[in-house]
Design goal:
It is a single chain. The chain is globular and about 85 Å long. The strands form six sheets. Strands 11-13-14-15-16-17-18-19-20-21-22 form an eleven-stranded mixed β-sheet, with helices on one face. A five-stranded antiparallel β-sheet has the order 6-3-2-1-7, with no helix packed on it. A five-stranded mixed β-sheet has the order 24-23-27-25-26. It has about 550 residues and is of the alpha/beta class. The longest helix is centred in the C-terminal third of the chain and has 24 residues, at about 405-425.
């Protein structure tokens, strides 16, 4: 027992409080405690208390219950209820150095082959018939030949999740050429625990231009621990690295005068204008003018903080501000931005979307998503169509290019819906224009699509007061229902007389009776014109008129794929 305790003690000495470690499964965590634990069966056993990055990886928050007394005994404190656990020293390791990881990834030509005789050892692929087959790897030596570090061919290196803790010992005869040729380096999700460790590596890479250190718990940077950012670094990705205030972001930028792209997403407090530190954020932004791309997703950004960005970032061309629920609008003018991401934010009014036309005059690409409060009750196809129609300069939305045909159909759809709202308001003796309709844009679209306006005028005339039974019958639409579902594709086309105000939910119930297809399995589509793309009627609470369905239209009923 004494020898075993001595062995555990020796192993535990390798670790220190605050050190980053990993287990056999690759889970990463931070050491918060080293020593005996009350609930251990061996009183003199040494345990390592770890707060895991994965908040569900552990069993407690750093406290255990004494089975004898029932009292709680706390050894350390975790941020989450189940992110802490105690492990034996042999179950974890402190990782390897950057130099070791680099050599292991790019081995010498005479190193043992990964696939001797062109087949991986103890690696097999399953087949449909049952037997396994060996995995073949051809050209290993050829690939290795162009990956020799000392030949200077490697300029981009990715060492994600490699358990790297720091620089390591450099052998000038082996490593100098490789380090001097690195331009791009990806060190995401390793075991770094301080900015100094990152700075030590950058110091050895004189031509480094792009660095990604996201997912490392680095803590608070300082001028001294980030001084080597003054190299030629143009792009820095430091998402979720433990920043807590905007002044800490300023330190990174101040020490990197050539920086053009900065990613600091995943730091909730840093863009809150109500935060005490950020009340002076105007002063802390004075040196960021060279930036052309800024990623502050999930950083607590609000309208007040964002309002000062244009003046302080005059060259900004790309802004990523998604996952900021407090951001309800962008009221300032961003004169140079061409790409904007505001998915999962808090937009609640269409007028705030319309503001993008004037506040972002060069905007071409927008990522808006489908989870703003503004679009909670409408379908994704509606959302996309309305955004395209209201933002005439966009060429890409949510990552998908906007083709000329899609724009025309979206604008016509929006126009029909807007005019239908006007007609409905008049029939209800409410002559005010719906607040969700952009008046200026509506006037422009009526000039571009006179045929849509003409159809609307005919519908308005037929439903005008004083037409008696003629007006009543004219307000009904003749709709042809055609099933394209496999089980009922041979069913004859059904014709229905329905009010223009009929909701899609009611139409689905009618289709369910006609074609024996449950409402939850239906997908309804409508073509505005013969050469138009099918329009998904994806809002059950909307009416036929809302989607621009007119008299004589044919609606296709498809079945959802399981």
């Amino acid at each position: 027992p004494g020898n075993k305790f001595q062995e555990q003690l020796t192993m535990s000495i390798e670790y220190s409080i605050g050190q980053r470690v990993r287990d056999d499964n690759g889970s990463r965590g931070t050491i918060r405690y080293i020593g005996p634990v009350l609930t251990s069966k061996q009183e003199d056993a040494i345990w390592i208390g770890i707060e895991w990055d994965d908040e569900t990886r552990g069993k407690h928050d750093g406290a255990v219950i004494d089975e004898k007394s029932g009292a709680s005994h706390r050894y350390f404190q975790c941020a989450h209820a189940n992110s802490g656990s105690f492990v034996k020293p042999k179950k974890i390791d402190g990782g390897i150095s950057f130099i070791e990881a680099l050599r292991a990834r790019y081995v010498k030509m005479d190193a043992p082959l990964e696939a001797p005789n062109s087949f991986f050892e103890n690696a097999f692929a399953n087949t449909k018939r049952g037997p396994t087959k060996p995995i073949e790897f051809r050209g290993e030596l050829k690939v290795r030949g162009v990956q020799q570090l000392d030949h200077g061919h490697i300029s981009s290196v990715a060492l994600r999740c490699s358990g790297i803790y720091g620089l390591g010992i450099i052998d000038a005869s082996i490593d100098t050429v490789a380090l001097e040729n690195l331009i791009t380096l990806d060190l995401q999700c390793n075991l770094f625990s301080s900015w100094q460790q990152i700075d030590d590596i950058i110091q050895q890479l004189p031509f480094l231009e792009a660095l990604d250190i996201s997912g490392n718990q680095l803590g608070i940077p300082s001028i001294d621990t980030t001084q080597n950012l003054r190299s030629k670094l143009h792009r820095l990705a430091a998402n979720s690295v433990g920043l807590s205030t905007w002044s800490q972001v300023k330190i990174l930028i101040t020490n990197a005068p050539h920086l053009e792209d900065l990613h600091v997403a995943g730091h909730a407090p840093i863009c809150k204008s109500s935060d005490t530190d950020n009340q002076h954020y105007v002063e802390t932004l004075e040196n960021i003018a060279p930036l052309r791309m800024l990623d502050i997703a999930a950083c607590g950004l609000d309208e007040h903080f964002a309002a000062n960005l244009p003046n302080l970032l005059p060259n900004l061309e790309e802004l990523h501000a998604s996952q900021n629920p407090s951001l309800q609008r962008l009221s300032a003018t961003f004169s140079e931005i061409t790409t904007l991401a505001v998915a999962s934010c808090g937009f609640v009014q269409w007028s705030h979307v319309d503001e993008l036309n004037t506040n972002f005059p060069k905007l071409l690409r927008l990522r808006f998503g489908n989870d703003h409060p503004l679009v909670t009750n409408i379908g994704p196809s509606e959302t996309r169509a309305f955004l395209i129609a209201r933002l005439p300069n966009l060429i890409q939305l949510n990552g998908a290019d906007i083709k000329p045909k899609e724009r025309i159909e979206a604008e016509k759809r929006y126009l029909r819906v807007a005019l239908a709202h006007q007609l409905e308001n008049r029939q209800k003796h409410n002559f005010g224009l719906d607040q969700n309709i952009a008046i200026t844009r509506l006037d422009e679209l009526t000039r571009n699509y006179p045929e849509v306006l003409a159809a609307h005028e005919r519908a308005r005339a037929s439903s005008a007061p004083g037409l008696g039974h003629q007006g009543l019958s004219a307000s009904f639409l003749t709709i042809h229902l055609r099933s394209v579902a496999a089980a009922s594709a041979d069913a004859p086309i059904a014709t229905e007389q329905l009010p223009a105000s009929t909701k899609i939910s009611l139409l689905k119930r009618i289709c369910a009776k006609r074609f024996d297809l449950p409402t939850q399995d239906q997908l309804l589509y409508f073509k505005m014109d013969d050469d138009a793309m099918p329009l998904h009627l994806d809002n059950d609470d909307a009416s036929l008129a809302y989607f621009g369905v007119v008299d004589g239209s044919t609606i296709d009923i498809a079945q959802k794929l399981l």
